Amino acid sequence: MSKQYVPQEIEPRWQEYWERERLYYASDEDERPKFYTLVMFPYPSGDLHMGHMRNYTIGDLIARYKTMRGYNVMNPMGWDAFGLPAENAALQADIHPKLWTEQNIADMKRQLYKMGICYDWAREVTSCLPDYYHWTQWIFLQLYKRGLAYKKMSPANWCPSCKTVLANEQVLDGGRCERCGAIVTKKDLEQWFFKITDYAEELLEDLALLDHWPERVRVMQENWIGRSPGIEFRLGIDGHAEEIGAFTTRIDTVYGMTFVVLAPEHPLVHKLTTPEHKAEVDAYVEKARQASEIDRLSAEIEKEGILIGSYATNPMNGERMPIYVADYVLMTYGTGAIMGVPAHDVRDFAFAKRYGLSIPVVIAPPDWDGKDLKEAYLDEGTMVNSGAFDGLPSSEGMERIADYMEEHGIGERKVYYRLRDWLISRQRYWGAPIPIVYCDKCGMVPVPEEDLPVILPMDVDFHPAGTGESPLATVPAFVHTACPRCGSAGRRETDTMDTFVCSSWYYFRYTDPHNDEAPWRKEKADAWLPVDQYTGGVEHAILHLMYSRFFTKVFRDMGLTSIDEPFARLFTQGMITKLNPKSKKVEKMSKSKGNVVPIDDMVNTYGADTARTFILFVGPPELDAEWSDQGVEGSFRFLRRVWRLVMEDAPPGEAPEEAERQLRRKTHQTIKKVTEDIERFHFNTAVSACMELCNALVADKDAHGVSPALEEGLRTLLLLLAPIAPHIAEELWTEVGDGENIHRHPWPEWDEELAAEEVFTLIIQVNGKVRDKVEVPVTISEEEAKELALSRERIQQRLEGKRLTKTIYVPGRLVSIVIE
């Protein structure tokens, strides 16, 4: 073996060995406890670069570490190959999405292989292949049969650049498309939806079960579901038989209602608008339809509305109130109508001020002087101007008014959710075809399961037309088919499914990837699921993770799985950033910004182990970290030092007993530190601990030669490095190991007695302030600690002329002295 560390010579050899030996291929028959670790499968829309490698490196470390801890680890990989990312990239490259996707998959696999990332490739899935989307279509049919998939005309979010519909979750702040950044508009189209709202309550309640998820992800999902308990009540309309249903979470303020607001999309707007207001209302409604929901709800935009000419009656006090149409009310939340209570709602207050409406106070703030409010009062208080409910605390009044409304048939308690049904149809080519046929005689007919998959044709002009129709609509051979029910001429559905449909169940398919009879066998899924560790970006907190949770609950109710939640633990890694040479700002790595570090360049210069070590060492993995060429150099120097430590000869030696004891203590302390840090995902401090152990071993070898304690330390260091820098650990293990492959060797265990410190730093406080520190034996008694503290020169100076009132000893930490 070479005395010089040349990673380009050793890494390809071990990568070939691991794949040949199928080192990380999981067996369903293995009797060891299972551990299912999974990194979110990627869009194959372009080359990988070092900015992508953080989550893959973390996932590989977990797989290798858990294998050494005695688990039967499943660590599969696949490709989220349908959808806008791949199609848009193919359009830009002017190549068919299928060819583009296949080329990228091949290149990305090569890059992952080159980084020493080991997967169970026997379980590989690719969502754009018929053997996968066969079952995506089958899942669609199961939801359709259960009333969870339906089609309706809907004002949809339309991206004029991508030329397709977007789900609400795919519209960013500012009303822009998450894919291309274009301003999203509205378009009336017939769309397919999945009824995720049927599971809203369970999706919300079960967040409490996910105690190993990041708190911010749970909060994001909780806010997106948006549970709102309240009262839905009816308002009569002057001169009309219809009633307006309004929903409020603050029924205690109902006596303060002075106007009613309808959403622009509300079906009663046109019925209730009087002739003299029609032109103005029609223009306003059309303008509001083009605005995004985010802009409509923005607190920074002044609220405006238009009178429609009709009046409603407050059912509690008989007051007559004008009806407005305003864009800050959404048809997708509640009933699409709200009661305007300006004294106790910020938006209503601003609206009333703008249009000169009265602002009666019905919840009195503490010490209210009876004068007009300068701003809306939102907190609890005492009810006033509220008829029979005057004088009640508002919290009690809320329940009493709700009871009254229910008893008198005015309204009823209800719960509404911010969560909307999942819009899954896309007017694009590159997606799973929706298995529905339209027949003039039979109507909408699902494709029989035995006729799946409905194959996506390849000979298609896949450029989006921008008309609201999929490119598939221009392919007669695809569109024209026989009705599965009556045999008459039929037409296939030409919309395709959103790529999130494909990615919401792939973790099930990994458990049984070659099954031709079903998407998976229940016993196989139950053996592996839930995923024990899921790793990916926080940008998927709402979309992918919410949809996957929904699918899992549907599958459970279908009898396909026994689990309630798909992912037991979730880790969301931070981004790797780098200076953008154009903007001179540190930004996320991106080819368009010119600040990427190519994987091939990195591996060819420093080796995969250096790249892995740097990525893990650069900082806490949940935070963003800036790429540093100096940091890469430092990681390379560390690995070269490890190489020399093992490979450079030294004479056998016999270290003094104290030196041996100290080195063994350092070794066992490091085992404990690295193990605990990996379990807590503190990978940066785990690498740091390995570096410290390496330094201690180098110093001991230089001083005493090769001793038994040094040999134990060397083997331990390589075992601890095996998940971090697997190639160098594997290579050096052939020199100092026991002949077994290092990644099949058990993880080292520490001895608590050997790891225990013999001394600790005793802190000495005077009146709560640290005045001295001293190293003391861990066996020091309370009396000895107090006596030592009081005898220290610095403390004697503080005690001079003072009266000692108390001395407190906290074992293993400090002595606290109180003086007057």
Mean pLDDT equals 93
Total of DSSP H or I helical runs spanning 4+ residues = 27
- The number of E-state strands comes to 34
What share of the residues lie within helices?
A: 25-40%
Alpha-beta classification = alpha+beta
Which word captures the global form?
A: globular
Poorly predicted residue ranges: none
Biggest sheet: strands, sense, closure? 7 strands, mixed
What does this structure look like?
It contains 27 helices and 34 strands. It is of the alpha+beta class and 820 residues long. The strands form ten sheets. Strands 10, 11, 12, 13, 14, 15 and 18 form a seven-stranded mixed sheet that branches. A four-stranded parallel sheet has the order 2-1-26-27, with helices on one face. A four-stranded antiparallel sheet has the order 6-5-9-19. The model has no long low-confidence stretch (mean pLDDT 93).
